[in-house]
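Dear colleagues,

I hope this message finds you well. In preparation for our joint manuscript, I am sending the Leucine carboxyl methyltransferase 1 (Emericellopsis atlantica) sequence together with its predicted structure, so that both groups work from identical material. I would be grateful if you could confirm receipt.
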Amino acid sequence: MPSSIPNLLTLRGRGGSRASRGRGRAHPDAHDTTIQGTDTDAAVSRLSAVHCGYLTDPYAQFFVSADGGPPTRRLPIINRGTYTRTTALDRLVDAFLDGRGQRQIVSLGAGTDTRVFRRFARGETEGLVYHEIDFEVISQKKMRIVRGNPMLSRIMGEITVSEDATYWSSDLGTRGEYHCHGLDLRKLVDAGESQALIPGLRTDIPTLVVSECCLCYLATEQAAAVLAYFHNRIQSLGTVIYEPVLSHDAFGKVMTSNLAARGISMPTLDSYPTPTDQEKRLSEAGFHGSVKAMTVGDIWRRWVSEDEKTRLDSLEGLDEVEEWELLAGHYVVAWGSKGLDVQGWNELPN
Ligand SMILES: C[S@@+](CC[C@H](N)C(=O)[O-])C[C@H]1O[C@@H](n2cnc3c(N)ncnc32)[C@H](O)[C@@H]1O
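The corresponding structure tokens are as follows:
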């Protein structure tokens, strides 16, 4: 039954903020606070997938408060979804970084995502310029955690904070540079020619803009304008977007009403209802190279090896095959490029 299935972002029945509960869309500020809370959901899901053996990520534990108890354990289908989404994005990002010469990543709504630590800890980054953007409250939280944690501090080196404290960065020498911006992405919509909103942004090197469940929270026009901000400035550009689709079927309706009960709306769900619409979205935004959108279900089937599936299945067992199919069919990973050929993307099974 679709109504008994949680979505990948959160668990069914989890309450929203007092301001938003039961009132559909909340007051804009309360809405922002609710959206910021989705980062905690993502961090808890990541740790659950690590704890249950799906993912290896020594950094995930630092971004979830322990409260003295064991980590929250998500349902097996949620863990599998987190695994598939994380490894798919890793694969697309790795392929992008595989190219020759210096590269830049811009992660929109990065939250307390750990990909940046995994990447810089792994080395072989050769001058990588890595930007993360999220609301100020989230970027400040990330800085506090990094500063207070010896393992993360070792990876990120010495941190410099901007005078107005909205932006922090770190020069990692030959390994590259890291920039974390406390910025509401909607400010990019009317940025005009201004370059100052994202200090350190390079416009002269191949860049990958990643939205792992972020642009879906913006109004469709705003989400398009954010992509256009980068598109208009950077010649060699790729993008990878992960977000839900198919709001119009029975499962999708439950998914959107669960979100609405928490005061969350996802405008792009209605604007780009299918994977094909997501491909069209990227083409219309000017990405004409390797444009592709695949559901999490298709990625699980085609990108995860049989050996890996066997390993993952042995972790907890997954009886809810039908529920998994439904859930995984409602999330999509879309990617595309312009002025840039990402060889590895052309070789992915589809
Ligand atoms: C579901 S979380 C995903 C976090 C991270 N990308 C991940 O996958 O683990 C969505 C993130 O997008 C951020 N976000 C949403 N709207 C934003 C906006 N207008 N400006 C900056 N960040 C935003 C939220 O604060 C939150 O951290």
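For the figure legend, we might mention the following. Residues 9, 35-36, 38-39, 42, 109-111, 113, 133-135, 138, 184-186, 212-214, 217-218 surround S-adenosylmethionine (CB under 6 Å). Residues 1-26 have pLDDT under 50 and may be disordered.

With kind regards,
E.M.
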